[in-house]
From TrEMBL:
Species of provenance: Asaia krungthepensis NRIC 0535
Transmembrane segments: none
Family annotation (SUPFAM superfamilies): Hedgehog/intein (Hint) domain (SSF51294)
Protein name: Hedgehog/Intein (Hint) domain-containing protein
Domain of life of the source: Bacteria
InterPro entries xref list: Hedgehog/Intein_dom, Hint_dom_sf
Sequence ranges assigned to domain Hedgehog/Intein (Hint) in this UniProt record: 151-290
Pfam entry (one): Hint_2
């Protein structure tokens, strides 16, 4: 059957796709009115619904896309793109309406006005029917999710009672060999669940966030570990020195590196009665944990949000993680493997400034020691604190498990008027959310994520001064961006 090309939202009422991709960019959605509804017809070849949610900032608005599928359609693949959700303003949720037999998927954000805005996708049937009558995801259909995976790509050889079996061929009831945290055999355990999930690679500039698969070359962990090249997702853990270490923290761009040539891929996972250590391609690794959600045709866990006891402790000590990372990197260097990492240049200047609600930029009058002083006009209720931002794991190394986007660490903030002074504490009390990072244990101030809204708690009556205590700033990658700020809604 002939397939139609890709289609993009342009304000029309109705759209159709047959095997192509329908793209919705939130920046192109109409802003007038609070409710908009559209129709999307998929053909026999199905299609992909792709949502770029980054510019969805207008609170109190709703855009609904009603999807229809003909009998026998291959279904719909769903993916969405989110650059940065460090302030937790973006979320994805779903619900099923048994009265109308429709599945509702919500891509939502909380804007600067603290009002919810969302794109809703309404699909026919119950998606977890596994191909039964009325089910959306027929066998072979895929749901592209933002949830992290702890899984193998096809070809991983799992040690079972019948020898090594490709992970994609494992089934419930089959027994796999397990090990203890010392690497000693611990007996066979039956597989209680197996599944396949599809992932679409994003392009945020952060390969771990983009969910690019990681290739671990033969011998990367030692002489026979793994025995052959192994592909896994970034969060998948390996047992090294008695601890679980995520693959993303081991990347050295020599023997362990991200694959850039797989824009979409399927990965496979399986469970045992409890979290277990198993062997893949001769390397000790893990079965699926129950602290992630799984969306796969015909398979859904009954306790997908339940945390389970780990079969070995997670490596949380940065010095230990660095030691493991450096050891593997040195092994790769001795093996003659050249680094594929781009050159990294660090800078210290944060380019700190304010953006007022009307979009006006205000540079500091002066920066003395750790204090930045700004002139603030009258009638201001707040301002954005804007700077460069980078992730510690990118600046220091992947072994540092801190993937927050850090701008500057803000301590005391004071507004000085003609004859008054006001201390601003909202950010330190934890009530400020937009653009602020969660405070890590032991941090005296609070980091911005590069663009943080600071509510003054009052409106300035006259022109005055604003002082910001910068407890820490940088270093930043030379390529680190400075956030662009849109005018704040009145």
């Amino acid at each position: 059957m002939e397939r139609s090309g890709d289609s993009q939202f342009n304000g029309s009422q109705s759209y159709s796709v047959d095997g192509g991709t329908f793209t919705v960019k939130s920046s192109s959605l109409p802003q007038g009115g609070s409710y908009h509804a559209y129709d999307l017809a998929l053909g026999q070849n199905g299609g992909t619904f792709y949502v770029d949610i980054n510019a969805l900032t207008s609170g109190g608005k709703k855009w609904v896309f009603n999807v229809s599928l003909p009998q026998g359609s291959t279904g719909v693949d769903i993916s969405f793109f989110c650059i940065n959700n460090s302030n937790r303003s973006i979320s994805v949720s779903d619900s099923y309406d048994s009265k109308t037999n429709t599945y509702h998927l919500h891509f939502s954000t909380i804007g600067v006005s603290n009002e919810l805005a969302y794109i809703e996708l309404v699909l026919p049937g119950y998606p977890w029917a596994g191909g039964a009558s009325g089910g959306l995801l027929v066998p072979g259909a895929k749901f592209y999710s933002d949830k992290p995976g702890y899984c193998f790509l096809a070809g991983a050889l799992i040690e079972t009672e019948d020898g090594e079996v490709p992970v994609e061929k494992l089934v419930a009831g089959q027994k796999v060999m397990t090990y203890d945290a010392k690497g000693e055999p611990a007996g066979l355990q039956a597989i209680t669940w197996s599944g396949c999930k599809a992932s679409v690679v994003q392009d945020t500039g952060h390969p771990d966030v983009d969910k690019r698969p990681i290739c671990i070359l033969a011998g990367a962990f030692g002489s026979d570990a793994p025995r052959s090249d192994l592909l896994v997702t970034p969060e998948h853990c390996f047992l090294i020195d008695g601890m679980f270490v995520p693959a993303r923290m081991l990347v050295n761009h020599r023997s362990i590196f991200y694959r850039d040539d797989l824009p979409r891929y399927e990965y496979y996972h399986f469970k045992t009665a409890g979290h277990a250590i198993i062997c893949a391609n001769g390397a000790l690794t893990e079965t699926l944990r129950d602290d992630i959600s799984r969306f796969s045709a015909g398979s859904r866990s009954e306790n997908e949000n339940e945390l389970v006891a780990l079969a070995a402790p997670l490596c949380r000590d940065v010095s230990v993680a660095k030691g493991i990372h450096d050891r593997l990197d040195q092994m790769a260097t001795r093996a003659g493997l050249a680094s594929m990492a781009p050159m990294k240049t660090l800078i210290g200047n944060p380019d700190l400034h304010l953006i007022l609600a009307n979009g006006e930029r205000v540079d500091p009058l002066r920066v003395n020691d750790r204090w930045a002083v700004f002139s603030i006009p009258a009638d201001q209720a707040g301002a954005h604190i804007v700077s460069r931002h980078s992730r510690p794991c990118d600046v220091v190394g992947p072994f540092l498990d801190d993937r927050r986007e850090l701008g500057i660490c803000v301590g005391e903030v004071t507004i000085f008027g003609a004859d008054t002074s006001t201390v601003v504490t909202e950010h330190l009390q934890g009530t400020a959310e937009t653009g602020w990072c969660q405070r890590a244990e032991g941090e005296l101030g609070r980091w911005t994520a590069g663009c943080a809204w600071l509510d003054f708690g009052t409106t300035t009556e006259t022109q005055g001064l604003l002082t910001i205590e910068v407890l820490q700033a940088g270093p930043y990658l030379e390529t680190a961006p400075v956030c662009l700020v849109e005018r704040k809604a009145a």
